[in-house]
Give the backbone structure.
Amino acid sequence: MEPSTSTSVNKVKTKQSSKLSRFLTSRKAAPYVFVTPFIVSFLLLFLYPMIQAVIMSFQQVLPGQVEFIGLRNYERLLNPEFYRALLNTSIYVVFTVLILVALPVILAVFLNSKLLKFRNFFRASLFVPALTSVIVAGVIFRMMFGESETAVINEIIGFFGISPVEWRYGSVSGMFLMVMLAAWRWIGVNILYFLAGLQNVSEELYEAADIDGANAFQKFFSVTLPSLKPVIIFVSTITIINGFRMFEESFVFWQNNSPGNIGLTVVGYIYQEGISQNDMGFGAAIGVVLMIIIFIVSIIQLKFVGAFKED
Amino acid sequence: MKKSLSLLLIPGLFLAACGGNGGSEGAGGSEAEDTSVIGPDSEEATELTFWTFNEQHIGVYEPAVKRWNEENPDRQIQLTAEVFPIDQMNNNLRLALQSGEGAPDIADIEVSHFGSFLEGDVQFESMNDQVEPVLEDMVEGRLDLYSKDDNYYGLPYHVGATVMYYNEEIMDEAGVDIDSIETWDDYVEAGKQVTENTDSMMTTVETTDQFTFWPLIAQQGSDYFNEDGEVILDNETNVESLQFMNDMVHEHEIAEIAPGGDHHEEQYYGYMNDGGAASLMMPMWYMGRFIDYMEDLEGKIQIRPLPRWEEDGNRTSGMGGTGTVVTNQTEKPELAKEFLAEAKLTEEGNIDLWTELGFDPPMYSVWDSEEMGESNKYYEYFHDDIFDMLLELNDEVEGLNITPETSDVTNEINTNVLNSAVRQQSSTPQEALEQAAESVRSGMSE
């Protein structure tokens, strides 16, 4: 009797496991199984908070007293401080996109050239800033750009006869500091993207260009740039989104208050109103508006460069 | 190639790793910077948690836990103190109170944020049963800061009497007797003598913080809000005081804007330590900064009351401060409240506030006690007549009107008003204050 029971148990086991494996390997189910972790985390960590934030933007949120107040949070958005935040952020986005796309492309081309010596050293050293914390880098920047005559940068421009600048107090120099910090930090990462893109540019195109008698500039503009287009679209999209979300670059220079709000960004405004001033409903309203802005800008940009076209 | 690349990465990684400790100021993360456990590690002891943003504050609870456990052997406690950067602590506490879980038993809240923590249903335990028996002996204005609807919620650490710190060496060089400075007019005259006869400025003013402007208006009985919570930021006194700040810098040229923007900047400490300015108006609790950051000035600094505005005007104002609260999420409200009272509302506790922290304790009945006269590092640095002077000023500390919008005003002052009216001179004091007042009024609900 014994052997037969054990075989029947075994049979049941194989049946069960084969059922499971059949489910896992079936063409219909497998894709869903694989995307489940993403779907779950998307629903829990993204969609739910987003819906909550939209609801909250119509509320006044205080401990024990949460009430709907209609559109009042949105009405309050029409104030000079918010415009200032929006203006600062937009200027910052424009500059970072220009700098963080143009410079890395050029540097990547150089770093890709076999004529350049020590290029691994340069590649690595340009990438290192990306590994530092913005906060640490910001502290150093703040000291370098101090307003006293003995601060490093003021001493350097002093050699050229320029009088000391109060870097952290003017709107132009303030913007310069933020863009500078962001550029210093992200150039290395973007170079990596472009270097990767350059590996895919086929040598034959350059050979053909050589045969046609193209010089280095013509090759760059007619071969390299068009081939890098997908990477450029990707990098500029990321830079635009990161620019609108920018917070730390302003925070490290001025913490929560910058003189005359020269460093106020939209996210900084969310933090200031929603968290520091305990007005989460208003903060949520700013957040919703920011989300809409990023959405619209990204759509326009992607449409403009033809990313939706299938080719 | 790979090897050289990874070698280069090492310093970068190191720098990145340092970011976690050095720069966690307010940005992200919810871990405490530092945790200390005070009291016996026994099973009977009840655990209480305490959040603060100033490590120094813990100093007053160490002796308090010891006293409490000696006096109450059957109700022992163990206090876990966690230190966070201030913004992070406020955020954590706000979210914990909003969501109804995760708050500590006891917490420190800085005065300009206190008002906004009292919005909605108050999430703190009323301390009235502890405060009322000793109210007579306390500087009442300091308790009122942390109260709402006749309930006291927060207990203060200090009076924060604003005083003038004079660098005697520079004043002597300029030929000014500091005791002859009675009024602000005298002060300006003395300042002109200082700038003429020495290389130093008379003083510095803050443009990114409010500890020049607020004391000046509070000294004259003015404030940001009146007793009914209405904005009076743009009243005549305040406009004139802001004009006075402006004049000191631009017309009389006896003051300059503090290097770094305010009196808590590395740049300022270095400047002051090198004799950059002959005097400084800050509250008593600033003594600790002198000791920690300006070693070269030891023995050279004399503390005096502020110059008066009018003949019988006040010579000080209570500034800054932190209220310690018991939250309603504590499991042992009575124990937490009684312990907090032991730390802050007893004579021993108040003496500790001075000897451990160098604060001017809010219970003035201890100011002339013997223990207060014993020599310590503060007396060594600043001479030993500090409390004789404070006793004189006792009646001249006026309360402030703290409202939920106080942090809005603070924000306007530090961001726009002082910058445009004093630093950039892009608007007149009147315009700057009116604009700020308007902005705060429009943000007030209803």
About this structure: Residues 1-29 of chain B have pLDDT under 50 and may be disordered. The domain at 34-159+321-366 of chain B is CATH 3.40.190.10 (D-Maltodextrin-Binding Protein; domain 2). Chain B touches chain A through 54 residues (CB under 8 Å). Chain B has two domains: 34-159+321-366, 162-318+399-443.
